[in-house]
């Protein structure tokens, strides 16, 4: 090959030289304030990373399949199981559906029993025709998990299937149950004794999981990524401690634990979360005295988050679940479930389930994301995120341990208060559009109208028991406040007509167009009938037009310089007929307020609270 001298004329640039150049281009703006991102996860993200940022990261010298598994559990691929959950109301019908979806690309089934007990004959009917040594079989929400495990072994033995070929698990999630209900079904002692019994019953099934760590509960309650990971690690350590105290070894318990995480829209963060989680968990298990590194692998099932899904403009949920699926599989996991785009508000349809399946199959069979081990490796940004998330999750884990472990920390209210503080911060960011929900708090579908939505769709899921001994976690969706706002307008409009909001563009062409577009999107979030205009030549023309249209709210859209004279004229002409609103935050705002103008909307407005106030003013 010829000697390539392409770069010989370019001297390498130091990080400081890059920063100096950027600072110069910022023209006096502060580098940190302008470009450094402070995350909800508790650490800063720099605007760029370089090779030198990798020098102090010991995990960079490991390979896929090697301890501490930051680069994945597998040495030569990134394969995962595509899972679909099936609600079991009738075992025959559930079996037929399972056989159908297994022919459509699924290789993992989750039977959701909703606390039903299955006899051995019912279980045999449910599994009829399914090759148990080829398909992962999971059971969710089962009362009789121990009996179910025994019956599964018996059925497999009768069919001549080697027990080490059975993959899947039952989800005994004592700590998530306590966290949502606020107490144990019977007692703490009996609950953990039952888990021990289940682990012992599954000894003959080396690839079958028993204990579940429900990290998705934290995610869907509004936690940060660090909180989801840190509290999940603490819950996993609690299971290890309780079972070891009960007489089992770490080698017996750790391989029976499965972590269930939810994946949000924070694309790169979610990739790093799974990598960081495996690394920290491997070191935790090793510290418990694992006899070999294989025991230290974290088994992960992922699912798309419920927290960021919306009822209005629901097809946008497909975009969310697609990027979530991609980040999850790039981060490396064992199985994944894409929840159908309409699952937040309806019983999933054949269409929505098909789309959900195919979203994963697209990534696996057409994008080939299962072929390359640790596809995110070497990205300076992702490697740095991995380290930052691991460090912060470890700090949170140690804080929980100092409080006596997950259960004691939860009883004391630490877990709830930590997540609640983050959730409230995120709610404010949604209300002020610092966190966007396309189609809900930003760029809504103007013509979309829904009937009255059930209360369960618009309220947090509160499963607190009457005998709860502490506050519980209540999963909710971040869009619920905006959805409640808009649905209130939809209901009002059925008998009262939809309140009209008219734009009043006048003066400077560029400013009036930009502000009219902003204001249209602003008021459409509340479900108002929004109408724009090409522009008025005079105040008189505009007032006549919006009055004839019966506008309840009129938004003046112009330049700051022109507001000082235009807005008072519009306000006086419409006084008593419509609410006059100014789009922007002009320097003359105080002068306008002195003349009676009280309503201003701009990019710093609390959109939710502002729209609630307009609803109240209009009697909605």
TrEMBL record:
All copies of domain Methylmalonyl-CoA mutase alpha/beta chain catalytic, residue ranges: 121-445
Family annotation (Pfam families): MM_CoA_mutase (PF01642)
Taxonomy, superkingdom: Bacteria
Entry-linked PROSITE patterns: METMALONYL_COA_MUTASE
Key word Transmembrane helix present: no
GO MF entries: cobalamin binding; intramolecular transferase activity; metal ion binding
Cofactor(s) needed: adenosylcob(III)alamin
Leading EC class: isomerase
Protein keywords: Cobalamin, Cobalt, Isomerase
Record InterPro entries: Cbl-dep_enz_cat, Cobalamin-bd_sf, MeMalonylCoA_mutase_a/b_cat, MeMalonylCoA_mutase_a/b_site
EC number: 5.4.99.2
Annotated family: Belongs to the methylmalonyl-CoA mutase family.
PANTHER family listed in its UniProt record: METHYLMALONYL-COA MUTASE, LARGE SUBUNIT, METHYLMALONYL-COA MUTASE, MITOCHONDRIAL-RELATED
Record protein name field: methylmalonyl-CoA mutase
Lineage: Bacteria, Pseudomonadati, Bacteroidota, Bacteroidia, Marinilabiliales
């Amino acid at each position: 090959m010829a000697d390539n001298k392409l770069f010989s004329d370019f001297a390498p640039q130091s990080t400081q030289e890059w920063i100096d150049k950027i600072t110069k281009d910022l023209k006096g703006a502060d580098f940190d304030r302008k470009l450094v991102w402070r995350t909800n996860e508790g650490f800063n993200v720099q605007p760029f990373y370089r090779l030198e940022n990798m020098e102090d990261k010991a995990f960079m010298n490991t390979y896929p399949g090697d301890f501490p598994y930051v680069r994945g559990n597998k040495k030569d691929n990134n394969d995962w199981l595509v899972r679909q959950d099936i609600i079991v109301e009738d075992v025959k019908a559930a079996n037929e559906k399972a056989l159908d979806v297994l022919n459509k690309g699924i290789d993992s089934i989750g039977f959701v029993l909703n606390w039903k007990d299955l006899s051995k004959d019912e279980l045999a009917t449910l599994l009829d025709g399914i090759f148990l040594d080829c398909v992962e079989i999971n059971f969710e929400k089962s009362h009789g998990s121990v009996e179910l495990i025994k019956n599964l072994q018996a059925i497999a033995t009768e069919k001549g299937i080697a027990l080490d070929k059975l993959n899947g698990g039952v989800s005994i999630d004592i700590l998530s149950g306590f966290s949502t209900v606020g107490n144990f079904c019977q007692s703490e002692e009996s609950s953990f004794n039952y888990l021990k019994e289940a682990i012992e019953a599954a000894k003959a099934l080396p690839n079958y999981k028993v204990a579940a760590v429900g990290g998705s509960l934290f995610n869907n309650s509004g936690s940060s990524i660090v909180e989801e990971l840190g509290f999940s690690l603490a819950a996993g350590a609690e299971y290890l401690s309780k079972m070891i105290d009960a007489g089992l070894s770490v080698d017996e318990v750790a391989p029976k634990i499965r972590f269930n995480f939810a994946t949000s829209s924070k694309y790169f963060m979610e990739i790093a979360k799974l990598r960081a989680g495996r690394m920290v968990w491997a070191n935790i298990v090793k510290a418990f005295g694992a006899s070999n590194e294989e025991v230290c692998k974290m088994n992960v099932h992922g699912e798309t988050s419920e927290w960021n899904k919306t009822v209005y403009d629901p097809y946008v949920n497909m975009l969310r679940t697609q990027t979530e699926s991609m980040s999850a599989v790039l981060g490396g996991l064992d199985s994944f479930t894409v929840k159908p785009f309409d699952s937040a508000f309806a019983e999933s349809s054949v269409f929505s389930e098909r789309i959900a399946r195919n979203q994963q199959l697209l990534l696996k069979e057409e994008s080939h994301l299962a072929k390359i081990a640790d596809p995110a490796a070497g990205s300076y940004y992702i490697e740095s995120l991995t380290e930052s998330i691991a460090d912060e999750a470890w700090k949170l884990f140690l804080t929980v341990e100092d409080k006596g472990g997950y259960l004691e920390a939860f009883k004391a209210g630490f877990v709830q208060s930590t997540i609640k503080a983050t959730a409230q911060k995120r709610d404010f960011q949604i209300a002020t559009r610092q966190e966007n929900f396309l189609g809900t708090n930003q760029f809504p579908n103007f013509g979309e109208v829904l009937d009255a939505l059930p209360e369960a769709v618009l309220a947090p899921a509160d499963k607190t028991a009457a005998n709860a001994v502490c506050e519980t976690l209540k999963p909710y969706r971040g869009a619920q406040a905006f959805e409640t706002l808009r649905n209130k307008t939809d209901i009002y409009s059925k008998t009262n007509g939809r309140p009209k909001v008219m734009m009043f563009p006048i003066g400077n062409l560029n400013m009036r167009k930009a502000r009219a577009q902003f204001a249209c999107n602003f008021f459409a979030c509340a479900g108002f009938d929004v109408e724009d205009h090409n522009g008025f030549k005079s105040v008189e023309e505009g007032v006549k037009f919006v009055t004839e249209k019966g506008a309840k709210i009129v938004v003046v859209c112009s330049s700051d310089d022109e507001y000082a004279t235009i807005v008072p004229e519009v306000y006086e002409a419409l006084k008593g007929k419509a609410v006059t609103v100014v789009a922007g935050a002009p320097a003359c705002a105080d002068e306008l307020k002195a003349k009676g103008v009280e309503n201003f909307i701009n990019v710093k407005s609390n959109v939710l609270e502002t729209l609630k106030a307009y609803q109240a003013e209009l009697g909605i």
